[in-house]
Amino acid sequence: LIAQSAGELLLEQNVEIGFEELVLSNEPDAESGEEAKEFTEDQKKQFTELKHTFCEHISLAVEMAASVSQMWLCCNICTYLWNNYLIAFRDPEFSSKIFKEAKETFKRCYTCTSQLILTASFDKEAPDYTIGSKADVLAHIALYYARLEELSGNSADAIKVCDEMLGKQFVPHLRKNFDTLKARISKSIPSGKGAPAGGKAPPKGAGKSPTQS
Question: For 105-153, what is each residue's pLDDT tens digit?
């Protein structure tokens, strides 16, 4: 609830949650002659504090949900995080623009949810008829957490995520995203250049919002 309240306060001021710098949800139209809204330094500081509060309490919430094995709640928290950061990830230079604390929040969401979703395949002995949508949520969170690690120069951590996700028996189009990411990172390591710098466009099909369970 605290994360949701922080997010709503930012959106009420037309401020995007996912960016380090001040980015407005709806920029004024130059042709309309509408002037851009000006914010004081105190207001900008408050916006940063709200972004911090959002990330901090998303992390706390997903850890609490995981501690009592509430897979569906972890997935809903991940979906809420993803939906609020989707705009930032759609920016071709997202790695340099995203709110700096977001990587740790994505890591917490990935780690907590991954430990509950051991496989993405349907288990006849313990049927979960929503496992497909839950696995889809995990795949999106894991993919972009891996991308953030890659673009931070942490190739080993990014590959570790890919390997773990490839072991969960995702459907082919989701496996392809992790196969592609792992291959690109692995190819870059022998050259001595490490992980690529800067934000490239996300893998095809990875920018869709996951379905909330």
Answer: 999 999 999 999 988 776 666 667 788 899 999 999 999 999 999 999 9
Tokens 């870059």 appear where? 188
Q: Answer whether 145's CB lies under 8 Å from 155's CB.
A: no
What is the C-alpha to C-alpha distance for residues 150 and 62, in angstroms, rounded to an integer? 23
- The token duo for 181 is 């990411």
At which residue do the structure tokens 């997010």 appear?
7
Among the listed residues 151, 154, 168, 160, the one whose alpha carbon sits nearest the alpha carbon of residue 113: 168
CB-based contacts of 4, cutoff 8 Å, min separation 6: 80
Low-confidence ranges of the chain (pLDDT < 50): 192-202, 204, 212-213
Q: What six digits make up the tokens of 194?
A: 């490490």
Mark residue 121 as left, alpha or beta (left: phi above 0; alpha: psi -120 to 50; beta: remaining): beta
